[in-house]
Design brief:
Distance between the termini: 49 Å
Number of domains: 1
Number of helices: 7
Length: 179
């Protein structure tokens, strides 16, 4: 795959992501209606309809593609491999499918899976946007597009802090010791 595929076809990829959401929404519409998720699962509180996914998911994909392009331009390695980007995307999809399944069967294993993710993020940078897009795709059937985007953004912030904070503290302590 050409290394500039993502940058040259941003509009096509964003349109394809909107098409994926539209197919999901049409499936929901013809199988009982499009779901609205309410805050704290209380029907008297405001809700977020899955229709908003037609806007939020393609915008997320567009922003992630812009970030990939920016990373490629500023990278010291010159070009980030397309296989790495696809690996991150498919890892996010797999994680999202597992989270959706464990949530739907109300398993306690989900708690340990999230703790394992936090522990793994100390050693591996899991805060890239490709993981968020994959996670959203993997959880879209159960949660729609909006809840995984909101929850995934919070999760990415936590994963970023868990990955970068120990390195920052270590370098800070090392600089103080060297003085």
């Amino acid at each position: 795959m050409n290394s500039d595929f993502y940058t040259n076809n941003r509009l096509l990829i964003a349109f394809a992501s909107a098409l994926v959401v539209l197919i999901h929404l049409l499936f929901e519409y013809f199988h009982g209606g499009v779901v609205t998720h309410y805050f704290m699962q209380e029907g008297s509180l405001p809700g977020i309809s899955n229709w908003w996914g037609l806007i939020s998911f393609p915008v997320l994909v567009w922003i992630v593609l812009l970030r990939i392009e920016k990373r490629k331009r500023s990278s010291s390695q010159k070009i980030e491999q397309s296989s790495t980007i696809l690996y991150r995307l498919f890892s996010g999809i797999l994680f999202g499918v597992v989270v959706s399944y464990l949530f739907s069967i109300e398993s306690n294993i989900l708690d340990y899976l999230m703790l394992g993710l936090f522990g793994l993020s100390i050693f591996i940078p899991l805060y890239y946007g490709e993981y968020l897009v994959g996670f959203t795709l993997g959880t879209m059937y159960v949660f729609g597009a909006n809840i995984p985007i909101i929850g995934g953004l919070v999760l990415l912030f936590i994963l970023f802090a868990l990955n970068r904070l120990p390195r920052f503290i270590y370098s800070f302590v090392q600089s103080k010791i060297r003085r």
